[in-house]
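S1.2 Input.
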Amino acid sequence: MNKISTVLEKIIRFAVGVLLIVLSANVLLQILSREILHIQTVWTDEVARFSFIWMTMLGASLQVKKKSHFAVSLFSLKGTVRLLHSLLVYALMAVLMVVFIWFGYKYTIQGWSRYSTSSGIRMAWIFAAIPVGGLLMLFFIVELAIADIREARKPSISAKGGD
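S1.3 Output.
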């Protein structure tokens, strides 16, 4: 699972990087065409929006993998209580991702009959960011839960050299 996760992370990082370049270049083109050339490009707004949607969902999965997602810690937990707390949080996150995947899938299916106004592409390609992002986040949540369980199973060694 670790090898798959590492390869998946590299692919996602690359995709997010490409989407960031596309988004930035697109917004720059939009500004230059409107303000300097006085030409209105109708497709740049959609490209920026669609790139941002995909970049957000893919980037969110990377944040889950790195445990960089939003969290509030009120107590300092240790040992079994910490593990149980982490597993509860992962379970709640997994439930939310199942909801993302389910409704994102349904929304994507509806998108096959809808087309974007200026570029004419099927909206399903854009809506697919929701279930894809949800699947990636769910994968990384399961990976984190397994890693925490494995870490908890390791025998603890005291700081004084095994006393």
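S1.4 Remarks. The chain has a mean pLDDT of 88.
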